[in-house]
Amino acid sequence: MSIETSTLGTLVLIAVMTGVTLLTRYGGVFLMSFVRISPRIESFINAMASSVLIAIIVPMAYEGDLGARVALLATAGVILVTRKPLPAITAGLVAAAACRYLIPGG
Amino acid sequence: MPVWFRFSPSGHRFATMDTLSSSYQLQPARVRAEFIRLLPIALFVVAFGAAFGLAAVQAGLTPAQALLMSTTVFAGASQFAALDMWGSAVALVPLMVVVFAINSRHLLMGASLYPLLKELPATQRYGILLVLTDANWAVAAQDYQNGQRNLEVILGGGLVLWLAWLLGTAVGVYFGGLLQQPEALGLDMVLGCFLLAMALGGKKSPRVLVAWGISAVAAMVAYLWLPPHTHVVVGALAGGVVGYFWLEQKPA
Predict the structure, then answer these.
(1) Which of B20, B35, B163, B229 is the most exposed place for a label (fewest CB within 10 A)?
(2) Helical ranges in chain B per DSSP H
(3) Cβ separation A85–B234 shorter than 8 A
(4) pLDDT at res. B146
Protein backbone atom coordinates (compact mmCIF):
# COMPACT_ATOMS: atom_id res chain seq x y z
CA MET A 1 0.00 0.00 0.00
CA SER A 2 1.31 3.41 -1.02
CA ILE A 3 0.25 6.85 0.12
CA GLU A 4 0.39 9.78 -2.28
CA THR A 5 2.43 12.74 -1.12
CA SER A 6 -0.47 15.14 -1.45
CA THR A 7 -0.95 17.64 1.37
CA LEU A 8 -3.10 15.23 3.33
CA GLY A 9 -1.04 12.18 2.36
CA THR A 10 2.17 13.80 3.57
CA LEU A 11 0.53 14.61 6.89
CA VAL A 12 -0.49 10.96 7.21
CA LEU A 13 3.06 9.81 6.42
CA ILE A 14 4.55 12.17 8.99
CA ALA A 15 1.98 11.01 11.54
CA VAL A 16 2.91 7.37 10.87
CA MET A 17 6.63 8.12 11.24
CA THR A 18 5.88 9.97 14.48
CA GLY A 19 3.85 7.06 15.82
CA VAL A 20 6.47 4.45 14.96
CA THR A 21 9.25 6.56 16.49
CA LEU A 22 7.20 7.19 19.63
CA LEU A 23 6.64 3.45 19.91
CA THR A 24 10.43 2.98 20.02
CA ARG A 25 10.89 5.76 22.61
CA TYR A 26 8.16 4.31 24.87
CA GLY A 27 8.28 0.59 24.08
CA GLY A 28 11.46 -0.39 25.89
CA VAL A 29 10.48 1.38 29.09
CA PHE A 30 6.92 0.04 28.92
CA LEU A 31 8.06 -3.56 28.44
CA MET A 32 10.59 -3.27 31.26
CA SER A 33 7.77 -2.43 33.64
CA PHE A 34 6.75 -6.11 33.38
CA VAL A 35 10.25 -7.39 34.15
CA ARG A 36 11.48 -7.95 37.67
CA ILE A 37 14.87 -6.23 37.94
CA SER A 38 17.08 -8.99 39.37
CA PRO A 39 20.84 -8.39 39.72
CA ARG A 40 21.26 -10.48 36.56
CA ILE A 41 18.83 -8.31 34.59
CA GLU A 42 20.51 -5.18 35.92
CA SER A 43 23.87 -6.53 34.81
CA PHE A 44 22.39 -7.25 31.37
CA ILE A 45 21.07 -3.69 31.15
CA ASN A 46 24.35 -2.14 32.20
CA ALA A 47 26.43 -4.17 29.75
CA MET A 48 23.88 -3.44 27.00
CA ALA A 49 23.99 0.31 27.67
CA SER A 50 27.62 0.87 26.75
CA SER A 51 27.42 -1.81 24.05
CA VAL A 52 24.85 0.34 22.22
CA LEU A 53 27.56 2.93 21.71
CA ILE A 54 30.08 0.38 20.44
CA ALA A 55 27.48 -1.13 18.09
CA ILE A 56 26.87 2.30 16.58
CA ILE A 57 30.52 3.30 16.30
CA VAL A 58 32.23 0.16 14.94
CA PRO A 59 30.16 -0.12 11.73
CA MET A 60 30.47 3.67 11.39
CA ALA A 61 34.25 3.29 11.34
CA TYR A 62 33.96 0.38 8.90
CA GLU A 63 31.76 2.18 6.37
CA GLY A 64 33.46 5.56 6.84
CA ASP A 65 36.30 7.00 4.80
CA LEU A 66 39.86 7.41 6.09
CA GLY A 67 38.89 10.77 7.59
CA ALA A 68 36.13 9.16 9.66
CA ARG A 69 38.48 6.48 10.99
CA VAL A 70 41.20 9.00 11.82
CA ALA A 71 38.58 11.12 13.62
CA LEU A 72 37.50 8.21 15.83
CA LEU A 73 41.13 7.24 16.54
CA ALA A 74 42.02 10.81 17.51
CA THR A 75 38.96 11.06 19.79
CA ALA A 76 39.84 7.73 21.41
CA GLY A 77 43.45 8.78 21.99
CA VAL A 78 42.59 12.13 23.53
CA ILE A 79 39.77 10.87 25.76
CA LEU A 80 41.95 8.05 27.13
CA VAL A 81 44.81 10.44 27.92
CA THR A 82 42.99 13.58 29.08
CA ARG A 83 39.57 12.11 30.06
CA LYS A 84 37.99 15.33 28.76
CA PRO A 85 35.27 14.95 26.07
CA LEU A 86 35.36 18.39 24.46
CA PRO A 87 39.08 18.30 23.56
CA ALA A 88 38.59 14.71 22.39
CA ILE A 89 35.71 15.59 20.06
CA THR A 90 37.58 18.66 18.80
CA ALA A 91 40.64 16.52 18.07
CA GLY A 92 38.43 14.12 16.12
CA LEU A 93 36.95 16.87 13.94
CA VAL A 94 40.34 18.49 13.31
CA ALA A 95 41.82 15.11 12.42
CA ALA A 96 38.99 14.37 9.96
CA ALA A 97 39.24 17.80 8.35
CA ALA A 98 43.05 17.63 8.08
CA CYS A 99 42.96 14.10 6.68
CA ARG A 100 40.37 15.00 4.02
CA TYR A 101 42.29 18.16 3.08
CA LEU A 102 45.61 16.38 2.78
CA ILE A 103 44.36 13.15 1.19
CA PRO A 104 41.32 14.05 -0.96
CA GLY A 105 39.27 10.98 -1.73
CA GLY A 106 41.13 9.02 0.97
CA MET B 1 33.61 11.47 38.48
CA PRO B 2 32.23 11.40 34.94
CA VAL B 3 34.55 13.14 32.55
CA TRP B 4 31.83 15.18 30.91
CA PHE B 5 31.05 16.65 34.32
CA ARG B 6 34.36 18.48 34.49
CA PHE B 7 33.30 21.31 32.25
CA SER B 8 29.68 21.39 33.34
CA PRO B 9 28.47 23.97 35.82
CA SER B 10 29.42 22.42 39.12
CA GLY B 11 27.54 22.20 42.35
CA HIS B 12 24.22 21.11 40.95
CA ARG B 13 24.77 17.41 41.25
CA PHE B 14 24.40 15.87 44.65
CA ALA B 15 22.63 12.56 44.09
CA THR B 16 24.71 9.94 45.82
CA MET B 17 24.52 6.21 46.25
CA ASP B 18 22.52 6.44 49.47
CA THR B 19 19.67 8.26 47.72
CA LEU B 20 19.33 5.46 45.17
CA SER B 21 16.32 3.86 46.81
CA SER B 22 14.26 7.04 47.16
CA SER B 23 11.94 8.17 44.41
CA TYR B 24 13.15 10.61 41.81
CA GLN B 25 12.23 14.26 41.60
CA LEU B 26 13.31 16.26 38.57
CA GLN B 27 15.04 19.42 39.75
CA PRO B 28 14.41 22.49 37.57
CA ALA B 29 17.83 23.99 38.32
CA ARG B 30 19.55 20.81 37.16
CA VAL B 31 17.35 20.64 34.05
CA ARG B 32 18.54 24.14 33.16
CA ALA B 33 22.16 23.19 33.87
CA GLU B 34 21.88 20.14 31.58
CA PHE B 35 20.32 22.31 28.87
CA ILE B 36 23.46 24.48 29.00
CA ARG B 37 25.72 21.45 29.26
CA LEU B 38 24.56 20.04 25.92
CA LEU B 39 24.49 23.44 24.20
CA PRO B 40 27.90 22.90 22.53
CA ILE B 41 26.79 19.63 20.94
CA ALA B 42 23.44 21.20 20.03
CA LEU B 43 25.25 23.81 17.94
CA PHE B 44 26.52 21.00 15.74
CA VAL B 45 23.02 19.56 15.57
CA VAL B 46 21.93 22.84 13.93
CA ALA B 47 24.29 22.04 11.05
CA PHE B 48 22.77 18.56 10.65
CA GLY B 49 19.28 20.03 10.85
CA ALA B 50 20.16 22.45 8.05
CA ALA B 51 21.37 19.54 5.94
CA PHE B 52 18.07 17.77 6.59
CA GLY B 53 15.98 20.86 5.81
CA LEU B 54 17.76 21.33 2.51
CA ALA B 55 17.44 17.64 1.59
CA ALA B 56 13.75 17.68 2.56
CA VAL B 57 12.80 20.54 0.22
CA GLN B 58 14.88 18.94 -2.51
CA ALA B 59 12.90 15.73 -1.98
CA GLY B 60 9.67 17.67 -2.50
CA LEU B 61 8.47 18.49 1.02
CA THR B 62 7.19 21.98 1.71
CA PRO B 63 9.03 23.97 4.41
CA ALA B 64 6.06 23.51 6.76
CA GLN B 65 6.04 19.74 6.19
CA ALA B 66 9.79 19.46 6.80
CA LEU B 67 9.46 21.47 10.00
CA LEU B 68 6.50 19.37 11.15
CA MET B 69 8.47 16.17 10.56
CA SER B 70 11.46 17.45 12.56
CA THR B 71 9.14 18.64 15.35
CA THR B 72 7.21 15.42 15.82
CA VAL B 73 9.63 12.69 14.69
CA PHE B 74 12.90 14.20 16.03
CA ALA B 75 15.08 11.30 14.89
CA GLY B 76 17.55 12.47 12.27
CA ALA B 77 18.82 9.25 10.74
CA SER B 78 15.29 7.90 10.18
CA GLN B 79 14.17 11.23 8.70
CA PHE B 80 17.00 11.17 6.16
CA ALA B 81 16.13 7.56 5.33
CA ALA B 82 12.49 8.55 4.77
CA LEU B 83 13.60 11.20 2.28
CA ASP B 84 15.36 8.46 0.32
CA MET B 85 11.97 6.75 -0.06
CA TRP B 86 10.07 9.94 -0.89
CA GLY B 87 8.42 10.38 -4.28
CA SER B 88 4.99 11.11 -5.71
CA ALA B 89 3.85 8.25 -3.47
CA VAL B 90 5.49 6.50 -0.52
CA ALA B 91 5.09 2.79 0.26
CA LEU B 92 3.69 2.67 3.77
CA VAL B 93 4.95 -0.63 5.17
CA PRO B 94 8.56 -0.24 3.96
CA LEU B 95 8.57 3.28 5.43
CA MET B 96 7.36 1.94 8.80
CA VAL B 97 9.90 -0.90 8.76
CA VAL B 98 12.83 1.40 7.99
CA VAL B 99 11.82 4.00 10.57
CA PHE B 100 11.27 1.30 13.19
CA ALA B 101 14.56 -0.46 12.43
CA ILE B 102 16.65 2.71 12.56
CA ASN B 103 14.95 3.92 15.74
CA SER B 104 14.76 0.55 17.47
CA ARG B 105 17.88 1.52 19.44
CA HIS B 106 15.51 3.79 21.42
CA LEU B 107 13.89 0.62 22.80
CA LEU B 108 17.16 -0.44 24.37
CA MET B 109 18.12 3.08 25.41
CA GLY B 110 14.82 3.50 27.23
CA ALA B 111 15.07 0.05 28.81
CA SER B 112 18.58 0.79 30.07
CA LEU B 113 17.28 3.81 31.98
CA TYR B 114 14.29 1.93 33.38
CA PRO B 115 15.77 1.53 36.89
CA LEU B 116 15.83 5.35 37.09
CA LEU B 117 12.69 6.05 35.09
CA LYS B 118 10.52 3.81 37.25
CA GLU B 119 11.12 6.22 40.13
CA LEU B 120 9.34 9.00 38.22
CA PRO B 121 5.56 9.48 38.07
CA ALA B 122 4.29 7.93 34.81
CA THR B 123 3.38 11.26 33.22
CA GLN B 124 6.88 12.64 33.77
CA ARG B 125 8.46 9.33 32.73
CA TYR B 126 6.72 9.25 29.37
CA GLY B 127 6.92 13.03 29.08
CA ILE B 128 10.71 13.22 29.16
CA LEU B 129 10.99 10.20 26.83
CA LEU B 130 9.51 12.39 24.08
CA VAL B 131 12.93 14.02 23.73
CA LEU B 132 15.04 10.88 24.25
CA THR B 133 17.81 10.80 21.68
CA ASP B 134 21.38 9.51 21.31
CA ALA B 135 23.38 12.32 22.88
CA ASN B 136 21.31 13.01 26.00
CA TRP B 137 20.87 9.28 26.58
CA ALA B 138 24.64 8.69 26.29
CA VAL B 139 25.28 11.25 29.02
CA ALA B 140 22.57 9.83 31.30
CA ALA B 141 23.77 6.25 30.76
CA GLN B 142 27.41 7.10 31.50
CA ASP B 143 26.43 9.09 34.58
CA TYR B 144 24.39 6.11 35.78
CA GLN B 145 27.38 3.78 35.27
CA ASN B 146 29.31 6.16 37.50
CA GLY B 147 26.66 6.05 40.22
CA GLN B 148 25.03 9.37 39.34
CA ARG B 149 21.30 9.57 38.77
CA ASN B 150 20.76 12.05 35.99
CA LEU B 151 17.37 12.12 34.30
CA GLU B 152 17.56 15.91 34.11
CA VAL B 153 19.87 15.55 31.11
CA ILE B 154 17.16 13.61 29.27
CA LEU B 155 14.78 16.55 29.67
CA GLY B 156 17.12 19.58 29.61
CA GLY B 157 19.59 18.11 27.14
CA GLY B 158 16.76 16.70 25.04
CA LEU B 159 15.06 20.09 24.82
CA VAL B 160 18.19 21.89 23.66
CA LEU B 161 18.86 19.17 21.07
CA TRP B 162 15.23 19.29 19.88
CA LEU B 163 15.28 23.08 19.56
CA ALA B 164 18.58 22.88 17.68
CA TRP B 165 17.11 20.28 15.30
CA LEU B 166 14.11 22.56 14.62
CA LEU B 167 16.27 25.65 14.20
CA GLY B 168 18.58 23.77 11.84
CA THR B 169 15.68 22.41 9.81
CA ALA B 170 14.25 25.93 9.48
CA VAL B 171 17.62 27.29 8.36
CA GLY B 172 17.94 24.47 5.83
CA VAL B 173 14.51 24.86 4.25
CA TYR B 174 14.68 28.65 4.02
CA PHE B 175 18.36 29.33 3.43
CA GLY B 176 19.78 26.03 2.17
CA GLY B 177 22.67 24.18 3.78
CA LEU B 178 24.84 26.29 6.05
CA LEU B 179 27.98 24.88 4.50
CA GLN B 180 28.68 23.54 1.06
CA GLN B 181 30.61 20.57 2.41
CA PRO B 182 30.17 20.03 6.15
CA GLU B 183 32.26 16.87 5.93
CA ALA B 184 35.28 18.93 4.79
CA LEU B 185 35.32 20.32 8.34
CA GLY B 186 34.75 16.88 9.84
CA LEU B 187 31.27 17.90 11.04
CA ASP B 188 29.74 14.58 9.95
CA MET B 189 31.83 12.95 12.68
CA VAL B 190 30.55 15.04 15.61
CA LEU B 191 28.00 12.52 16.85
CA GLY B 192 30.31 9.54 16.32
CA CYS B 193 33.16 11.22 18.20
CA PHE B 194 30.76 12.34 20.94
CA LEU B 195 29.39 8.83 21.47
CA LEU B 196 32.89 7.34 21.41
CA ALA B 197 34.06 9.86 24.00
CA MET B 198 31.08 8.93 26.20
CA ALA B 199 31.83 5.20 25.87
CA LEU B 200 35.56 5.46 26.56
CA GLY B 201 35.02 7.98 29.36
CA GLY B 202 33.02 5.41 31.33
CA LYS B 203 34.03 2.51 33.49
CA LYS B 204 36.28 -0.04 31.78
CA SER B 205 36.32 -3.30 33.72
CA PRO B 206 37.35 -6.57 32.05
CA ARG B 207 33.64 -7.43 31.91
CA VAL B 208 32.85 -4.21 30.04
CA LEU B 209 35.72 -4.75 27.61
CA VAL B 210 34.56 -8.30 26.83
CA ALA B 211 31.00 -7.00 26.33
CA TRP B 212 32.35 -4.36 23.92
CA GLY B 213 34.33 -6.94 21.97
CA ILE B 214 31.32 -9.25 21.59
CA SER B 215 29.14 -6.25 20.74
CA ALA B 216 31.57 -5.03 18.07
CA VAL B 217 31.77 -8.46 16.42
CA ALA B 218 28.00 -8.99 16.54
CA ALA B 219 27.33 -5.51 15.17
CA MET B 220 29.71 -6.10 12.25
CA VAL B 221 28.21 -9.51 11.48
CA ALA B 222 24.74 -7.93 11.46
CA TYR B 223 25.96 -4.98 9.42
CA LEU B 224 27.42 -7.26 6.77
CA TRP B 225 24.93 -10.12 6.64
CA LEU B 226 21.65 -9.24 8.38
CA PRO B 227 18.91 -6.91 7.08
CA PRO B 228 19.87 -3.20 7.00
CA HIS B 229 19.64 -1.12 10.18
CA THR B 230 19.64 -4.11 12.56
CA HIS B 231 23.30 -3.86 13.63
CA VAL B 232 22.85 -1.52 16.61
CA VAL B 233 20.22 -3.67 18.29
CA VAL B 234 22.05 -6.94 17.53
CA GLY B 235 25.37 -5.60 18.84
CA ALA B 236 23.83 -4.07 21.96
CA LEU B 237 21.90 -7.23 22.86
CA ALA B 238 25.02 -9.36 22.33
CA GLY B 239 26.93 -7.09 24.72
CA GLY B 240 24.05 -7.34 27.18
CA VAL B 241 24.23 -11.15 27.14
CA VAL B 242 27.80 -10.89 28.43
CA GLY B 243 26.46 -8.90 31.35
CA TYR B 244 23.69 -11.43 31.94
CA PHE B 245 26.13 -14.30 32.40
CA TRP B 246 29.01 -12.35 33.95
CA LEU B 247 27.93 -10.42 37.00
CA GLU B 248 30.10 -7.64 38.40
CA GLN B 249 31.40 -8.49 41.87
CA LYS B 250 29.70 -6.14 44.30
CA PRO B 251 32.29 -4.21 46.34
CA ALA B 252 32.20 -5.54 49.89
Answers:
(1) B20
(2) 28-37, 39-58, 63-72, 76-84, 92-103, 105-112, 114-117, 122-128, 134-145, 152, 158-175, 190-201, 206-225, 231-245
(3) no
(4) 87
- Do the Cβ atoms of B191 and B47 come closer than 8 Å? no
Determine the distance in angstroms separating the CA of A46 from the nearest CA of chain B, rounded to an integer: 7
Residues of chain A contacting residue B239, judged by C-beta atoms under 8 Å apart = 47-48, 50-52, 54-55
Summarize pLDDT for B187-211 with one digit per residue, the tens. Answer: 889 989 999 999 998 888 999 999 9
Partnered with residue B91 across adjacent β-strands are A2
Average pLDDT over residues B227-239: 96
Task: Measure the CA–CA gap between B73 and B67, rounded to whole angstroms.
Answer: 10
Instruction: Please give the ipTM for the structure prediction.
Output: 0.93
How far is the CA of B41 from the CAs of B36, B160, B190, in angstroms?
10, 9, 8
Q: Do A32 and B93 touch (CB under 8 A)?
A: no
pLDDT tens digits along A26-37: 999 999 999 998
| DSSP annotation of B8 | S
Cα(B215)–Cα(B219) distance, integer angstroms: 6
- For the entire predicted model, the pTM comes to 0.87
CA Rg value for chain A: 21
